[in-house]
What does this fold into?
Amino acid sequence: MINPDEVEFTAIRAQGPGGQNVNKVSNAVHVRFDIAASSLPEQIKERLAALHDSRITREGVIVMKAQQSRSLGANKQDALRRLQEMVDSVAVPPTVRRPTKPTYSSQRRRLDGKAKDGERKQMRGKVAF
It folds into this structure.
């Protein structure tokens, strides 16, 4: 769980349609979350920093922008929810793939099927009288 005290919020003006209100009210939110300085477990920090995501800077800071809602509080909640989803996506370690070898009989079935297909295609030639 992300500690909201470790997240830096900056109110900015939202983009897009909204008439005069969009020019005078700062309802959008920029969120900055420093991965290295957070209280997350080390494994989660490493996997989070290794993500190939354009929202993560070279310094290891996650930068998000939330401007879906017309209220500042709702945009903060939305940004925190999205940040938590990002952390949750790396919380479970990936399963290690163990390479397996096909059985002898499965190899034989595959090669027999290929040979049968080849014979069928050989029979498709022109008919000689």
The chain has a mean pLDDT of 90. The two ends are 80 Å apart (CA to CA). Strands lie at 7-12, 28-34, 61-66. DSSP finds four helices and three strands in the chain.
